[in-house]
Amino acid sequence: MRVQRRKRSAARRVGGVGVFVFSLLAVPAVAGASGSAAATDLPLPAAIETPVESWTVLPMGQIGSLTNTFWQVLRATPGSSHWSVVTPEGVADNGGLVAAANVTTASITVGFLPSQLLRYSPLSVTTDAGRTWSPAFLPGALAARPDALASGPNGTLAIVGSAVLHQAPNSATWSRLVTLAALKGLAPQCAASTLDAVSVTSTGAPLVAAACHGHLGLFAASTGKWRFEGVILPDDWRDASTTILRLQSGTSQTTALATATQGQHQALFALSQTGSGGWHASAPLPLGAQSTVRATAVDFGGALSVLVGSRKSESVYEITPGGSWVTLPTPPRRAVGLAWVTPGATSFGATTLDVFTVVGGTDLHVFALTPAGGNWSSAQTLEVALPYGSSS
The domain containing residue 357 runs over which residues? Predict the structure, then answer.
């Protein structure tokens, strides 16, 4: 399956424009067994592969201690298997980062989640692959959600409180696009409880995901009108509470990752949509009662990889659009993140998956999945300087 996926990915990389979003919050553990709210109120380190480069955001330092956890933005340079730290400076990132990549403008926007005395979310924007960053304004605090920020041809979307805000291109003004109350009224059967994620299609159409009951809550807008595109869960999960953890739109493919929680049982569902067609939901991937989603990554063609961990073990799963879940080799211990790497940015010369581990707070280790998919090979080690004591 790995070889087949690489061949399809290589074909998809020629031409086209898409929108890719990734976001990170504060401590690497998600998807508890207590319900959908818990699954999104906690953080989800995540990464994305664009047509020309790879990005990830990772927690480092004394993970679990808010004041001594420092989030880092990393980028893989095309043509090299090494990652570079390009974290925006000037704002404390202990509370976590939410970021969006807009391929139409070749820009990355990073939002800082509130922490310490910070009560709103400053934004930083780069158009030169993280070499320089410019400040931007957002009226309020970004929601602590994996994909609370999105960017595309028609502007930027952000989840602030119970509303989705919109900023048009080349504008400094934000306006309200839609509210949770409006979506709840549109689909009573969903009983939307929180706004989970936003995305923008390559045509500029907005997508919004919400936590639901018995459905996977997806809403789309066209010509100013919203419609409910929720996917009904299989019979065994009809009474489950759901949360959308990831929502990504590319040139023609939209991908979502959802959790479903029913009593002490929980599972992951992958969703895919080609163009404006219907949504395809995967078979459920059952998770143990003590398992948590610790990190995710989405590649350029919509393939998903998920790092799942418990007190006893860690596992990595992969699924392609319309495919089935596949178990990958057991990842190295202390894994904190995943990232797909573009063919030009890997030493193996083909699409691969990287796993990141942190040792001693400051040592970042990168392991790449070998071409045959049989094991993880050490690819890079770098020491990252962290400003311990700066948040006290």
Answer: 2-11+19-383
